[in-house]
Amino acid sequence: MKRFICILLISWSAIVFPSATGAQTPGQEPDSSRSLFETTSRQLEVGGRFSDVSGDPARFQRYQDIRDGALFTNVRYARQDPGELWLFRATADNVGWRDQRYSAGYERTGRFVVNGLWDQIPQFYSIDTRTPYTPPPSPLLLDDTTQRQIQNGQATLSAYVPLATQFDFVERRDVGNFNLLATPTPQLDVKASFTTTRHSGELPWGASFGFSNDVEVALPYDSRTNDVTLGTEWMNSRNMVRVAYNGSWFDNLDDTLVWDSPLRLDDSTSAPGRGRMALWPSNSAQTVSAGGYSKFARRTQVTGFISYGFSNNDEPLQPFTINAALPQLVLPRGSTQAEARVFSTNVGLVSRPQTDWSFSARVRRYDYNNEIPATPIPEFINYDTSVKTSSTGGPEPYAHSRTTFDADATWTGAQPFAITAGYTHNNGGYDFRIFEGTGENVLRLTADMLGSQWLTFRAQYELADRTGSGLNEDLLVEIGEQPDLRHYDIADRTRNRFNGLVDIVPNDLWTFSASLGIGEDTFDDSYFGLQESTFRVLSFAADFQKASGLGAGGSYTYERYNGLQRSRSANPGQETDPMRDWTADSTENVNYFSIHATPPRIGPNTEARLSYDFSYAEGSYLYTVVPGGPVPEPSQLPNVFNKLQQLHIDVRHRLAPRAALTFSYLYEPFRVFDFAFDPSVVDGIVQPSSLVLGYVYRPYTANSFVAGLKYFW
Predict the structure, then answer these.
(1) CA–CA distance from 72 to each of 76, 78, 108, 663 (Å)?
(2) For 158-204, what is each residue's pLDDT tens digit?
(3) Contact 545/520 with Cβ under 8 angstroms?
(4) I need a labelling partner for 18 at 20 to 30 A (CA). Which of 81, 160, 384, 596 fits?
């Protein structure tokens, strides 16, 4: 039961169903030789769960619902026509819980496939949070009497402590997906899909009035995204053509946040009594595309793809300030009128004209054109306190383009070895960035060994050099930045990387593997900003498996990441003093170890599985200043770390041909320290010049037991 879960919105094709051929027909006795850990095509499980958590229960069940209670889960049902003309499948997991999931599908062989999915994904932040603000929706209000007392100097932020109520900080995504694939002829497929995602709950949100009045609130969030795809594909033995339409509509029902200031009730020219913030605007995007391939003589294939998309956002513009004591500046227009056009194309060629040689080449082009009309904003309201003159005269419509050319040549004349040499050129163009364009040349050399019965490996070395052009340092000066600052995503960069992987299979019992990754990025032309970054990754793994069911394995992975940045601490008039420079050197080390064991059956009816995972990550920051300079020696921050262990034991015991007892136990201790979110730092909702939620990183130790009865037929 892993706790680190990536939230992925996956298509139906990624859902693995049990094979319909393994389904028992009514009245047929199940195969007792099959492992009780195998998922059958007709099964269900009922049981109960009990968890004991000391520490932080929210982090223990971050993306899952692991509360105590009865379970009805692992439902699998498949039914197939005896003549294999049709197939129906359905699943249900964690019925009635916050992380429940259902799916169903029907297939008419050679005619059509229809399926659907409903998936709930919770995110549990904290039970430690407290706030004096009224519950959602916006506006989030504070007690007027307390606001006025603080405004008049009769109280401090501590007056909000007795007014704050505890709440569970939770949000959730509900994902529904429907897919249809029709095959009117053997050469023609028609596809359609619809996905709707609702995201609701509360998010931790910074709603600051400035450094001297920092506020953290529970942001009310309620949005829905609907995605539609329609397409058709025609194919024969040598050609394929596909056309498609994709549409996406995002609707944010809570598009504006309004919240009270904890320091004052009334608006004034020096401070507002309330803040207002625009959130994610409702918008839409449409894309039409076409693609295909053709096969030619000498084992040559040409592929192509082209798409055109347009995005729109026409939400009303928010006034410059909510502070009634300030002048209301005239908006440049009533609504955003934002539009963007996206054009992309991809053309590729793969050829093997001779037995020992193969070649491939590909050209990709991507253009993002920002067509928002000019938006003159000569003045704006700064922190809801004063009118300021804009240094840029309004927002700058960012846009970019990218062209990539790839070419590879592979020689296999020394079987089972293969040598590949490759070249890539990336060219980027940018509107309103410090560089107008970048050009990058990448050289690759790859060696493979495939086809051997006991050894395979791959090794690749990559050398890349990126250079910017059309540098405009005036854009940095215009916004008050150092002209020697460079943005790492487009700055001049030299990259060296090596990756290697080896798999050894000496016999039918053992498998060994090892991998190594080394990389370094250097930014020699960046005086300020990222100077260099490196990574090191090393892993080993071994697995043993016997036909009797006895098996065991383990793996170890070490990762190390480093980054060096340079900046300058300077007030007006000191910007050119290099003695005021300082650097930040960050390092992160990660150690991960995992073992698992699958003992043979204990008697004829009992099976067990055991696994143990250990991960430890530690990060450090080293700040340095110029020796003898005017910047005082920095106080170093303590290291941050997190350590997670998971011991998982599963036991299955067959009671009868159609029933088995199931038992699982999870022991999970988690330890964490972060200097920004440790309880020793955030020790209450009132901090110096801040009113926060009290959200912290806390350790926990969890013991979770699940016992149930599995029935299959």
Answers:
(1) 12, 18, 30, 14
(2) 999 999 999 999 999 999 999 999 999 999 999 999 999 999 999 99
(3) no
(4) 596
Cross-strand bridge partners of residue 366: 344, 402
What does the chain come to in residues? Answer: 713
SS3 475: helix
The closest of 648, 642, 649 to 668, measured between CA atoms, is 648
The single-letter code of the amino acid at 324 is A
Q: Confirm if 79 and 87 have CB atoms less than 8 A apart.
A: yes
Q: Tell me the residue type at 235.
A: M
pLDDT at 296: 95
- pLDDT-derived band at 28 (thresholds 50, 70, 90) equals low
- Whether 241 contacts 292, CB under 8 Å: yes
Query: What is d(CA 11, CA 14) in angstroms, rounded to the nearest whole number?
Result: 6
Rounded distance, CA 264 to CA 415, Å? 78
What is the rounded CA–CA span in Å between residue 645 and residue 77?
Answer: 35
Tokens found for residue 153: 């100097």
Token pair for 80: 């197939």
Reading the block at residue 32, the tokens are 């007792």
For the chain, count helices (H), then strands (E): 3, 34
**What pTM was computed for the model?**
0.89
Phi, psi angle pair for 162, to nearest 5°: -70, -15
Q: Is 578 exposed, middle or buried (0-12, 13-18, 19+ CB in 10 A)?
A: exposed
- Are 406 and 381 in contact, with CB atoms under 8 Å apart? no
Under 8 Å CB-to-CB from 86, ≥6 apart: which residues?
80, 106, 107, 108, 109
**Per residue in 421-457, is it b (16+ CB within 10 Å) or e — as a string?**
ebebebebbbeebbbbbbebebebebebbeeeeeebb
